[in-house]
Each structure stands twice: as C-alpha cells, then as structure tokens.
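Worked Example 4.2. Consider the chain below.
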Amino acid sequence: MKWRVVCYLILFTPAITVNSSFSQEYRYPPPDQNSVYKNLQIATELVEKNLEDQALKYLDFCLYKRPNEKNALFIRARIYNNKKMYLKALTDYNAFLSLEPENREALYSRGLVRYQMGQYERALEDFMKLRDVPGNQETKSVFYKTDASGNMAVGVATISSMKADILNHMGLCYFQLGQYQKAIDAFSEGISISPSSDLYVNRALAWEKTGNISKAIDDYEFVTENYPGNEMAAWNLLALKQKAGSQNLRLNELNQFIEQYPDMANGYAARGMFYYEKEDFLAASRDMRKAVTLEADNEDYLFNLGLCLIKINKPDSAEVIFEKLTAMDHTHAGAWFNLGNIRYGYAAYNEAIACYTIALQHQPGQAQALYNRALAYYQEKKLKEACSDMKMVQKLDPGLGKVRSFLKKHCIE
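Applying the procedure from the previous section yields the following structure tokens:
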C-alpha cells in the first residue's frame, strides 16, 4: 500500500466547454469583445461561484486582447492546474512570472505543477527560490493535499505560514530525486519551525530509504503518540515491526491495529496473508473478503481473496473474482493463469487453453502456465501443441512436474 508523503495543490473544480446557450443558462452576457476589465470582472465572479469552466471563456478573451494581463494569466493557470492540463498551467505561470518574477503565490503554484509533471529538479528550484524571496510568507489560498506520487488525497488545508510547507516540498523533491539525506534535512528543518505529523511521516519514509529503521520507527511512534488517529503512521509503524516480530507478536499487533482502525482495509489484508502463510485458509479468506469490502477495486486484495477461495475449495467464487480482475486489468497474467486452472478443473480445456495463452502473452516464459497449457492441449488430443509447450518447459524449468516423462512417452521424434 502506498502511504502519503504530503504536499499541497491548489483546488479548483473541472472545467467544461461553454456552449451557445451559455448566456441563457447562467444569465451572464457573452464575452465583451472590447473590455478586458469587464471580462475579467465576470470571470472573477464565476470563479467565486465555482464556475471556473465558464470563467475560462472570459479569461481567453481577456488574454486575446491583452496577453500580459497578469490576473487573467494567474486565474487561468489555476483552472488548468485543476483540470490536470499541467503543460498549459505551466505556460501561464511562466508568463505570469516573467512579469512578476518574485510573486510568492505563483512560484509556489508553479513548483507544484512542476512536481506533478515529474520535473522535480525544476520544482526544487522554485521552492528554493520561494524560500529565499523576502516577504511575510503568508498566503490566503486553499490547497489540496497530495501524496508523493502526485495523486490527489482527500482533505483541504488553509496555509497561513509557508516556511515549513516550503521545506516540506523541498524534501519531497529531494525524496523523488533519491537524495534522501537532503530530504531528511529539509523535513527536519521544517519540523524545527512548525512541527506537523506530515513532516514526521515524510521524514520517517526517508529514514526507511536510508536503511535507518530505528529512526523511522522513532518518528512513526512520535506521530502515533502525539497525533492520535494518524492512520498512515500507525500502519507504517506496524509494517516495520512486522518484519522483525515473532509470529505471536505479529498476530497480536495486527489484532490491535484492526481494533484501533476497523475501517482500514490493509489491516485485514495483512492479517489475511498472515493466516494464509499459516495455512489457515478459512480465516485468511474472511479477512481478505473484509479488505475487499472496504476497498473493492484493490487488485492485490482481490487477487489474494481469489487464491484463498481456491484453497477452501470454492472455485466458482474464485472464478468470479478473477473474472472481475481481468475486466479491471486485461493484462493481469496471474488472474488469467488462475482462471485457466479453474476451467481446467471444470474439464473446459479449450477455455483453459485460451486463459493460459493470454497469461503467457502478458508474462512470457511462465513455465507453469506452459506446463498447464500442455496438459490442456493433451486432453484435447492436440499432441503437437502439447509437445511444443513441454519442450519449452524443459528449457525453462526441467524439474517441473512430470515434464521429462511426458516428453519421453508422448513426444519421441
């Protein structure tokens, strides 16, 4: 499971295309062909009413008439950013900053856009410049939390003091660039200015990357003790302890975690895998089903549930799970392989062959899939194809199953 390394992104609602009924539907006049001020005024009103999609029409007219209209550039950049049209957002922020190079809000926002685009070195330049620009380091904007991969996360925060947040973003950039000690230094400086659970968790993740597990545990424990209810810190702390704990200790910790966070799927998933390893497949299936109930589209949870159902002799239920997986991700070789096994068990050999073939298309050289397909071909009396697969298995894994005896008995040339 991925855990959030937190940064912030300006929040806007998606834009849509303005149609010819625009003025009747929203009771705004069409864009004024001559007045930049009037168009900007209407665009601002629309933004305040969360109608940023319509606002774009007016902003485009503003910038057509006056390409260097700073307010229009800045507002449009924000809207593009929220639409994930990062290249357009970056173009507008660049234009704005060419006119006002030390504007803190624009530097901050451009840094975030560059981060979203994976331009971590360029984003770092913006955050470092922002750190060094004189000013009171305050902003009235509303920001949207994201994780280190750039995915949006729920929760909105109003930023009043930016210094610690700037250092947090610098740390994020260093983290993405693999410069973990610099990331730790940035997070630590942010903590010294304005401690937050985000900064501690981010630093803990960086400590993990450097191999300093004890310091990572210290940071996670600090968060769980001082910021109760922080799920990511609690889970990451548990995950680290699980690696070193005895089986009894692991199970006790998992039980305690689930009791404290009953709505977190990963707790049930982890306990399910614990039971799976212990070959208590019925208990494993219960926990995996609970995890899937909480996160219905998690492919790992679905796959593991399917495996559990096979182990407790419920192939029909497992088949439904693996079919759902292949619908979600047609390239999921493991799901296709298990569907092949289930259909082989039903004596639907041609269907099994089709499933194994798709699995091999997405994971070539999988010896077990080749072996099983060979057996399905044999059942369908397609000896030539069966022998071809078995010969490939002999090259990949000569000790698998009864490949040698099969070749000796059925494939003598």
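Residues 1-26, 137-160 have pLDDT under 50 and may be disordered. DSSP finds 22 helices and three strands in the chain. Compare this with Example 4.1 before moving on.
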